[in-house]
Amino acid sequence: MSFRFSHVLHLFFILSFSFSILAHNEQDPTTKIMEDFSGYPIHEPQFSASTSFSVDTENLQLQIDELSRYSDTPAPSVTRILYSEKDVLARRFIKNIMASSGLSVREDAVGNIFGRWDGREPELTAVATGSHIDAIPYSGKYDGVVGVLGAIEAINVLRRSDFKPKRALEVIMFTSEEPTRFGISCLGSRLLAGNDALANALKGTVDGQSISFFDAARSAGYATDQDDLSSVFLKKGSYSAFIELHIEQGPLLEDEGIPIGVITAIAAPASIKVDFEGNGGHAGAVLMPYRNDAGLAAAELALAVEKHVLESGSIDTVGTIGILELHPGAINSIPSKSHLEIDTRDIDEKRRNSVIEKIHQSAITIAKNRNVTLSEFKIVNQDPPALSDASIVKAMEAASKELNLNHKLMISRAYHDSLFMARVSPMGMIFIPCYKGYSHKPEEFSTTGDIANGVKVLALTLAKLSLA
Fold it and tell me: Which pairing describes strands 407-412 and 260-266: parallel, antiparallel, or unpaired?
């Protein structure tokens, strides 16, 4: 008998004996011997809520408060506009926190920031999480921010629990989720999803002060080489999963006393710009029968939007006239021009598009009846809805149950970067309650307890997906 054969035979007897006493041990000794012999794990380690999770709520709240100070308006409001001085300082703050949490940090050409924790199998695609930190004028300090700082803290939770990721975990801070400066929402995530039309349109895009997108980006240290943004694009499947933690921005979770919302779908948004032109004239001298009032045309269309939305047959259909501008804007002058910007949303794309068509037909009819010109009816964006991936929903539900946290399956009527990340990878979202559903206003608030619950569910979900 050769030495090699006798050695293998001896190992076989050891393994057989070990198998016979498996029922008396917490860990399969056969597996342990095989792992010791080979130097590699036979089965993936299990990771569950039985592992002690510790969220540093005090430090996380301090970070949220400190980030809110990078604002162009006084507390308690927050205003943080893309590529502004305060935005650049806030970005530096996030990068420092990522680095101090042991993440390797990189940025792309438009300022999407990535913090990566490498996994033990680097050839596998990573699991990603994140949100945004830009803020519309006079808003609050939790929208988006919870999904960035909370994601970094979720990584810290896993580190403190001695978790070892199989797939890398990556935190993303997306550029300009809000449309404040250039009128484009989710700019960073749209580009990550490979939007050629947007990349080309940005070459001619300017803000309200006629500053071009690229001049603004370069003032913040981005897009330094050229105007080609294709380097930002991600290939489909670049991540195995993406999860976003976010405040609800609605009252349901708080009203029902439920700590966790598991999102099954994100409503489909569309934006419309409408311009009417009339003759104008003196408010006293032009008699009512002879007027071509562009302002009244706009007012009538605003009411038509409400009518068509309410007649859709679904509570999930919504419409908002967010901007209504009159020219010349004097109390004693009949408006010669009016400009409206309309936001319509629904989880049913066909139903939403039907409402848009009815709005268009109303605009044509109103212009004819009031003898004004419909000079523009432009659909700025018409995005499809996004469905959460079933396996991610299952993982989020399982995490909530293991943590003994009640959860609610729900849809997101606000749209988020997750809507566009769904084009890159399977997607899911976690909601936590916020005070009275307030958002986009200084009163926006979530308790440290609710934030901690969200961070724990996110951390455990990331762990499960990392080991998949």
Answer: parallel
Give the domains, in start order, of the chain with CATH numbers. 57-267+385-467 (3.40.630.10), 269-382 (3.30.70.360)
> Per-residue confidence at 47, pLDDT binned at 50, 70, 90?
low
Q: How far apart are CA 189 and CA 241, in angstroms?
A: 15
Local structure of residue 52 (DSSP, 8 states): P
pLDDT digits (tens, 9 = 90+) for 243-256: 999 999 999 999 99
Mean pLDDT of the chain: 91
Among residues 386, 392, 402, which one has the least CA distance to residue 466? 392
User: What residues form DSSP beta bridges with 377?
Assistant: 274
* Residues contacting residue 410 through CB under 8 Å, at least 6 positions apart: 252, 261, 262, 263, 264, 431
Peptide bond into 269 cis (omega under 30): no
Say which residue, 397 or 35, is predicted with more confidence: 397
- Residue 6 corresponds to which tokens in the numbers above? 């006798």
What's the pLDDT tens digit per position in 282-305? 999 999 999 999 999 999 999 999
Q: Which uninterrupted H or E stretch holds 96?
A: helix 85-100
For the chain, first and last CA: distance in Å?
43
pLDDT band for position 38 (50/70/90)? Answer: very low
Cα torsion 267, 449, 398, 47: sign: positive
Q: Which CA distances in Å does 341 have to 182, 258, 324, 381?
A: 14, 35, 7, 12
Among 78, 188, 166, 82, residue whose Cα is nearest residue 119: 166
Query: d(Cα 226, Cα 285) in Å, to the nearest integer?
Result: 56
Beta partners for residue 459, in sequence order: none
**Is the omega angle on the peptide bond into residue 76 within 30 degrees of 0, that is, cis?**
yes
Whole-model pTM: value is 0.84
Q: Please, are residues 409 and 264 in contact by the beta-carbon 8 Å criterion?
A: yes
Beta-strand relationship, 427-432 and 239-247: parallel
Task: Please list the residues that pair with 382 across neighbouring strands.
Answer: 270
Q: Per the structure block, which two tokens stand in for 418? A: 């997750």
**What's the residue count for the chain?**
468
The residue among 354, 360, 357 whose CA lies nearest residue 377 is 360
Euclidean distance between CA atoms 420 and 147, whole angstroms: 16
